[in-house]
Amino acid sequence: MAATATTIDPTPPSKAPLNISRDAITYHPWDPQQEPLQLSQIRKLISKDLSEPYSIYVYRYFLYQWGDLCYIAMHEGKFVGCVVSKLEPHRNVALRGYIAMLAVEEEYRGLGIASKLVRMAIDAMIEKDADEVALETEISNTAAIKLYERLGFLRSKRLHRYYLNGSSAFRLILYLKNHLPPEERGILEDAGCCGGHDGHSHDHAEHERSEQPHDAHMIG
Ligand SMILES: CC(C)(COP(=O)(O)OP(=O)(O)OC[C@H]1O[C@@H](n2cnc3c(N)ncnc32)[C@H](O)[C@@H]1OP(=O)(O)O)[C@@H](O)C(=O)NCCC(=O)NCCS
């Protein structure tokens, strides 16, 4: 999906505090009743890891329509992680979930929080009969790539100069219904106009941007 922002430090070291038990982390769905507090906390957390903060309209676009696919991690009343997602038909052949934003507070990394949040979002998508889940991440973000590959995501394509700062992205896809033939799993794009040529990939990245609100590139 799209966003002008990219991570400042894509592979931060794991800084999990020794005295925090995984059991002390609680996970909650986005609660529209708590919007003022939760929205500002989500923005604060996501903005920390971006070179440019997203407009509030980008957050509202996701949270107002797919708040049930967004989850928050808390520790002793402190907001420590979040995942923001959506689910939509993709090219009339698949129902595609999309991980738009994922971040964990630096000192809470390495505790499995991001994995848990992403699994919760995926489970919610499965309940809604999703065929697949996609996201983009910078090719240099080894922490995120390892995390997603451990969850079963596959590298679908490389998007040349996908972000406005010039860095490239991988599109990662998790196929949830293996029995579907490729053309029904929404992967026609890989054999289609982009065909792996750099120039075309760039054009495709532009096309992908135009599908998203506010011309934003996401850092799922
Ligand atoms: C990427 C990020 C969300 C991971 O959060 P986390 O809660 O620490 O992740 P988890 O503890 O669930 O890690 C799951 C797996 O991811 C991989 N991973 C996580 N952090 C890593 C790191 N710094 N280096 C290498 N692999 C890493 C590991 O395989 C890890 O499993 P393991 O601990 O059993 O080896 C976190 O580093 C972050 O917020 N980064 C900045 C924002 C960002 O890049 N978001 C993703 C955009 S696509």
UniProtKB/TrEMBL annotation:
Its EC number is 2.3.1.256. GO terms for cellular component: NatC complex; nucleus. Residues 198-220 are annotated as: Disordered. It is an enzyme of class 2 (transferase). It comes from the Eukaryota. GO terms for molecular function: protein N-terminal-methionine acetyltransferase activity. Residues 25-177 form the N-acetyltransferase domain. Keywords: Acyltransferase, Cytoplasm, Nucleus, Transferase. Pfam families: Acetyltransf_1 (PF00583). It catalyses: N-terminal L-methionyl-L-tryptophyl-[protein] + acetyl-CoA = N-terminal N(alpha)-acetyl-L-methionyl-L-tryptophyl-[protein] + CoA + H(+); N-terminal L-methionyl-L-phenylalanyl-[protein] + acetyl-CoA = N-terminal N(alpha)-acetyl-L-methionyl-L-phenylalanyl-[protein] + CoA + H(+); N-terminal L-methionyl-L-isoleucyl-[protein] + acetyl-CoA = N-terminal N(alpha)-acetyl-L-methionyl-L-isoleucyl-[protein] + CoA + H(+); N-terminal L-methionyl-L-tyrosyl-[protein] + acetyl-CoA = N-terminal N(alpha)-acetyl-L-methionyl-L-tyrosyl-[protein] + CoA + H(+). It is found in: Cytoplasm; Nucleus. PANTHER family: N-ALPHA-ACETYLTRANSFERASE 30. Belongs to the acetyltransferase family. MAK3 subfamily. This is N-terminal methionine N(alpha)-acetyltransferase NatC. The lineage of its organism: Eukaryota, Fungi, Dikarya, Ascomycota, Pezizomycotina.
